[in-house]
Amino acid sequence: MLEIESLLDLDETIAGNIFAGLKYPWEALRKIGDYILELGKTLSPDEYDRIGENIWIAKSAEVFPSAYIAGPAIIGKGASVRHCAFIRGNAIVGENAVVGNSTELKNVILFNGVQVPHYNYVGDSILGYKAHMGAGAITSNVKSDKSNVTVKVGGASIETGLKKFGAILGDHVEVGCNTVLNPGTVIGRNTNVYPVSMVRGVIAADSIYKKDGDVVPKVVDKSK
């Protein structure tokens, strides 16, 4: 479940090609800045305005006057970057995504339809199609001892070689309010995380994370 195709619909991002030849999605984190510089050159001036230093904003996007955007960055079609949002560079914000009040982004890919709408910090992370983080939910992207981040799955650890790596959220993941996603967290598609959780490691797809050690399969009512 850690491989790219198990977590992410690459048709739901302008950055699909960044994952070419990679096995794990976090391998793309090193490439985001350079990728934006190349991708930006290909964007149609009829659809995107180039603002300042390597910042491309879709003409249909809404950017509040109080928002701060540093390049390189791409803000996709129909996206909303709201009051006091702080985008620190190396950021791709997908189509119809929401970057909300006082939310901070740094070295991220937000797929189409992602919502980080209230007081979120998302750093060195990738959020899949229509993933949502509740108010105050954050990614913690550096370990306290400053060592490289590993992804822990079962009894094994996968070395990432990254000192900074927050989280990978699969498509349609819902993260509850005031949750902390510890470095190297990977959450599978369609999983819900309870509010005020502290999450680490790999959480299976189609699950409900209640607390550490209490993860249950999600029951879907197919009659609706």
Automatic annotation (TrEMBL):
<dbReference type="GO" id="GO:0016779">
    <property type="term" value="F:nucleotidyltransferase activity"/>
</dbReference>
<keyword id="KW-0012">Acyltransferase</keyword>
<dbReference type="InterPro" id="IPR050065">
    <property type="entry name" value="GlmU-like"/>
</dbReference>
<dbReference type="GO" id="GO:0016746">
    <property type="term" value="F:acyltransferase activity"/>
</dbReference>
<feature type="domain" description="Mannose-1-phosphate guanyltransferase C-terminal">
    <location>
        <begin position="69"/>
        <end position="187"/>
    </location>
</feature>
<dbReference type="InterPro" id="IPR011004">
    <property type="entry name" value="Trimer_LpxA-like_sf"/>
</dbReference>
<protein>
    <submittedName>
        <fullName>Transferase hexapeptide (Six repeat-containing protein)</fullName>
    </submittedName>
</protein>
<dbReference type="InterPro" id="IPR056729">
    <property type="entry name" value="GMPPB_C"/>
</dbReference>
<keyword id="KW-0808">Transferase</keyword>
<dbReference type="Pfam" id="PF25087">
    <property type="entry name" value="GMPPB_C"/>
</dbReference>
